[in-house]
Amino acid sequence: MGNHSDGSPNHSGTVATAGQNEVEKFQDPGIPPHRLRLADTDPRAAKKAERQVALLFGVSVVGTLIFLVAYFAIDLGGPDSSIATIRLQNALLGIGTAFAMLGIGTGIVHWAKALMPDHEVSEERHAIRTEDDRQAAVRIVDDIVEETGIKRRPLIRNTLLGAVALAPLPALAIFGDLGPRPDDKLAHTMWAPEDGKLKRLTRDPDGTPIKAADVTLGSAFHVIPEGLNELSEGKLNEKAKSVVLLMRLNPEELHPSPGREDWGYNGIVAYSKICTHVGCPVALYEQQTHHLLCPCHQSTFDLTQECKVIFGPASRPLPQLPISVDAEGYLVATSDFHEPVGPSYWEREQHVLIPNS
Amino acid sequence: MSSSLTPDAPVFVAKTSGGRITDFVDQRVGGSGILREFGRKVFPDHWSFMFGEVALYSFVILLLSGTFLTFFFDPSMAETHYAGSYTPLKNVEMSVAYSSSLNISFDIRGGLFMRQVHHWAALLFVASVAVHMLRVFFTGAFRKPREMNWVVGGVLLILAMAAGFTGYSLPDDLLSGNGLRIIDGVIKSIPVIGTYISFFLFGGEFPGTMIISRLYTLHILLVPALILLMIVMHLFMVVVHKHTQYPGPGRNDGNVVGYPLGPVYAAKAGGFFFIVFGVVAIMAAFFTINPIWNYGPYDPSPVSAGTQPDWYIGFVDGALRLMPGTIGDWKVEQIWFGHVFTFNVLLPALVPAGILFTVMFAYPWIERWITKDDREHHVLDRPRNAPTRTAIGMAGFVWYCVMWAAAGSDLIATHFHVALNDVTYWLRALFFIGPVIAFIVTKRVALALQRKDREIALHGRETGRIVRLPHGEFIEVHAPLDEYKRYRLVGFESPEPLPAVPNEHGVVDRKEKRRAALSRWFFEDRVAPATPAELEAAHGHHAAPEPIETIEAAESRKTLSH
Fold this sequence. Notes:
heterodimer; A: alpha+beta; seven-stranded antiparallel β-sheet; four-stranded antiparallel β-sheet; 7 helices; 12 strands; disordered N terminus; B: mainly alpha; two-stranded antiparallel sheet; 20 helices
């Protein structure tokens, strides 16, 4: 068993180990002699191990019982069931399962390690393939190719190749109705005025309109367009594009670029809440520094510089929503965003109304 | 097969009922050949071989718990108002998918437990596949003839991540919805077809009403079927190749040393399934995972700070965070020919993962080309005995870990009270220099360990016994190793650089020159295994177990000291 005259694998004489055989190496002494365990020599130790294994299997039985009791005795739908009831049941089901499984598992492993024979044995590896098989296989393949005559009839071969190359196309095309064409859907949001009526800015999530007078200096509002909550379908789709952050700063701190001077009102400005990086909501407003921070990837936008990116992976500023007040003093959007909101996409540049540099 | 045709042959009658059942099956399908082949098949034993078993067993647990969950989960994105027993969300508008996930958690006995078992087992599944691959890499188990199985393993890792991701999104809670939002943003950054892929995947604009049911089909049908197929191929190849074994006395490339499958190995491996299940059950019992009821239904407006993806997606998310979107006033996003190239998303999402997986898949062939080693290897390398490979592996591992850490940059900042920006700047620097440092340090440590092995093989182990010699010198007595322990330290190959070899035209072409240069880089720093001659020399001059001999030896050592 395992007594090999030379266990060294370095006999193939390949280039990789050339030079090694020149130096004398240690000989493989073979598998170390087997050492008896306590349970092999002492019947009392063997008996003890046997009892331990049985005890572990017994623990498993107890675990199964715990599980069944927890499942049937704890009533989730009861009048005084609460989160604590669920938590208790979950813990007991888990403990029960754990005991049931670990009891069996540790029992079997202990049995194997303490009582089953632990002689290491050596087995020869066989070659993965034999030369005989290889030659026979090559002959078979040659015969098959020969019998099809595919080499002698290139017309058949070429038309077959062409047909097989084209055949998967329908399998691709049939997925064409997975979704509609994008067209310019990403370019528009609910903020566009409907029939000449400007959309009011309303609070997220209850949809109550916001008076300009309610927006105190330093405050911030999460905003959705008027009528969003009344949509019967596609509400989340519209919300995913139209959510806005509304903040009021000291007007001197804002530095609007030419053409955007009238996009705010008395220092009140509205910016898209959807990050221009990969679309997370830019939900954190640092009131003191006037920075907007995206919690997903930490893109930071400076409100005083028209939400220019000052840190993080976003490349473009947040789009600004032009706002004003209506006759009743409520904030309204004077138009849709002038560029698509959210993450960039291939056709985005064609959907930008006013280049924003 | 032939046994049923020979009624008048002397019939072997099984003595036990188990034997009779075996005989019954054998007469119908001929199983005795299989049993003869596998019943006593030898498997080598080592704790590091269990990672693959953990992966297999957690997959079984995933199938069991997942089947339970499908009986109650409804992947519809139709709107509903919650009417279950969790009062904080009573009457809240949400999707049917989220509502049914809450019902599984709160109204179905054992539902929460099964959800937690499923999620923990999923995390464990990907983790054990990854650790198993690290073990295979660092021990050189991917070498001929196992290159194809290494590739299958890599595919399994990708499939495991795909299974995890599709499952993670199913409850349609706020957290997973934001995860989908990020995926949508990444998809949209793909040039030319990105917008179309996004619309086709979501059935229109994000989030639409299709994505959950589509992910569900992938999660419970397509991905698990592929995983199962790959596992079958993986195990089939394990049987064909037989298992690798660690180096040691009696082990060589021509044999397998270990325990027979029946009963010892089967008992250990089978028992281990129950242990893995038990450990997952403990985690599910005591550690909350993905408390979807805290997050609320998906809504594109809110997001909670400090959100993290499941760990295996972390490295991509971290890479997204590390990439700067602007450098000074220069935007990384570029507009060329009227089209948008979103490099600030495209590069971090595709390039690091692409490099990691490409190098991983190609590595067996790269190393084979450099070393020109076409032999079969069934004996593993101890990581220290392949210093350059180990260093390459550590460099890749550190690179991965830097990106992974970046996915928690906000938590690092809040927990250690450091500026978030500084964390990002440091991680950006480590992204480039971390792997280089890891390579150098690992290689030196591996070489140092090899020298230590050599030292022990030649001079024995330290006994801790300090002896004072008559002239006042203190020495520690070293005890020599027995031949089995010594062979563990000296029984390895230490290849030398392989100079460029001219091809059949007698020319050393440029490719061969490159290979020779890489070979030098691979093997020029080497520690040769100790030889019997060296041991002889060491014994002649050095410490022997008897102190009295040591005294004599001490005199000569002074002149020979190195």
